[in-house]
Design goal:
The chain is of the alpha/beta class and about 450 residues long. Helix content is about 40%, strand content about 15%. The strands form three sheets. Strands 3-9-8-7-6-4-5 form a seven-stranded mixed β-sheet, sandwiched between helices. It is globular. About 45% of the residues are buried. The structure holds pyridoxal-5'-phosphate.
Length: about 450
């Protein structure tokens, strides 16, 4: 006979996946397989094959003791975040499943999701920087990232130095040494090395291995995190954690979301690097909402398919554009000429992506004529969606960049930025062909 007072129910099943969920026998399962079910147990949600959207602001605790334990995780008394669900600014089932699946792609211990790529970047930087500190970054960065460092963080006593994306080991060493001196004078430290590779719109790749060696040599091993915005090649074509980065950043709005129907961001890395960011996210908010997280779970099921197809399409379109009489040149990772860039590509990338630059013969007028003549490709900024997009950086995304800096970055009036989608490749070629004929 059961004593009605004694709890007879077994402990609540863990929502968190068990490690063996990633293997069959000795065989580690591939990310493409794990995207269908990893981190979600249908039996905990009435057998629903897909996770429900948990539209709630707060979660009921099993007991007061459980509530206390969860809050120890939230407040950092115990590292690694909450063991259970607490309140929707901190965590939620859709977000946790998403984070479990995101970390798989980068081989990361953990991940955190955010309401946008920029929220991820801003919360990450704020978590690591104090007054007097120096951020070293590669250049150019996504305009809003560069702006946050140069215009916002500087108001709080954080300074910065940058090096060109393609910089050599010696050049990186020199900038880090300068940053170390600068930090010492300001009473701070080098707080972070922040990279973006390939740079937009130049497509210059950063040598992450060289940056790691430089950090270890000049600042000390693991002295500050090396962070990299992997939006353009991730999660499929580049895994920067394998090359020495500590934290990977994504605008999930792009390839991961992939359908141009949501805005979100994420970071992935070791728990120890992510914990300060999680703590600040708990305070500030900025976690992705349940609906967006659910949409991203949908998207992750096809991310490999979509990116593979887009990459194949881009290779075909670029093969057509190369040598076209109205095309002056291409900034496409599949056709790098520079020996050092080629070497970085070979070491760091497994694919050339589907976002590239086309230099039209002529200037703004010819480029606009080309853009206005496109029938399939839509005129829009952003990238990584199922549909092909084209834009004019000098007149759009980089309009506010001073002319001098534009010239230095190679953002010319004849540069058209293209993100290839998953349409039929021959249709896309026909579209580019007729638009070039109209120039
Ligand atoms: C779009 C983008 C961002 C910003 O992401 P949002 O989701 O728009 O906030 C950051 N970095 C890169 C490289 C991007 O392309």
């Amino acid at each position: 006979m059961n004593d009605p007072v004694t709890p007879t129910t077994p402990p609540t099943p863990r929502r968190k996946p068990k490690p063996e969920a990633t293997t069959i026998g000795n065989r580690p399962l591939k990310p493409a397989t794990l995207m269908m079910g990893f981190g979600y147990d249908p039996s905990l949600s009435e057998g629903s094959l897909k996770p429900p959207i948990f539209q709630t602001s707060t979660f009921a605790f099993e007991s007061a003791a459980a509530g206390k334990r969860h809050f120890e995780g939230i407040t950092g008394k115990r590292p690694g975040g909450a063991e259970g669900l607490v309140y929707s600014r901190f965590n939620g089932p859709n977000q946790e499943i998403l984070e479990d699946r995101l970390s798989i792609w980068d081989g990361a211990e953990d991940a955190l999701c955010f309401s946008s790529g920029m929220t991820a970047i801003c919360v990450l930087m704020l978590a690591y920087c104090s007054a007097g500190d120096v951020i070293v970054h590669s250049g150019p960065l996504y305009a809003a990232s560069e702006g946050f460092v140069a215009k916002t963080l500087t108001r709080f006593g954080v300074t910065y130095l940058d090096f060109a994306a393609g910089a050599s080991r010696d050049e990186i060493d020199a900038v880090l040494a300068q940053a170390k001196d600068m930090a010492a004078k300001q009473g701070g430290k080098v707080a972070m090395v922040y990279l973006e590779s390939p740079a937009n719109p130049t497509n210059a790749l950063v040598d992450v291995e060289a940056v790691r060696d430089a950090r270890d040599a000049v600042l000390g091993k693991g002295e500050c995190p090396i962070v990299i915005d992997n939006t353009f090649l991730g999660p499929l074509w580049s895994r920067p954690l394998d090359h020495g980065a500590d934290i990977v950043v994504y605008s999930l709005t792009k390839y991961v979301g992939g359908h141009s129907d949501l805005v979100a961001g994420g970071i992935a890395g070791a728990k120890a690097w992510l914990d300060p960011v999680r703590m600040l996210r708990n305070t500030m908010g900025g976690i992705a909402d349940p609906n967006t997280s659910w949409m991203l779970l949908r998207s992750l099921e096809t991310v490999e398919l979509r990116m593979t197809r887009a990459g194949e399409n881009a290779a075909k379109v670029c093969a057509f554009l190369k040598g076209h009489p109205k095309v002056e040149g291409l900034g496409y990772l599949g056709m790098i000429e520079d020996a050092r860039q080629k070497d970085i590509f070979a070491r760091h990338c497994t694919g050339a992506g589907s976002t590239f630059s086309v230099f039209i013969k002529g200037g703004e007028a010819e480029s606009f004529r080309f853009l206005d003549s496109l029938k399939i490709a839509k005129l829009a900024v952003s990238l990584g969606g199922t549909e092909t997009l084209a834009s004019h950086p000098a007149a759009m995304t980089h309009l506010s960049v001073p002319d001098e800096r534009k010239a230095k970055l190679g953002i010319t009036d004849n540069l058209v930025r293209v993100s290839i989608g998953i349409e039929d490749a021959e249709d896309l070629i026909a579209d580019f062909d007729q638009a070039l004929a109209a120039v």
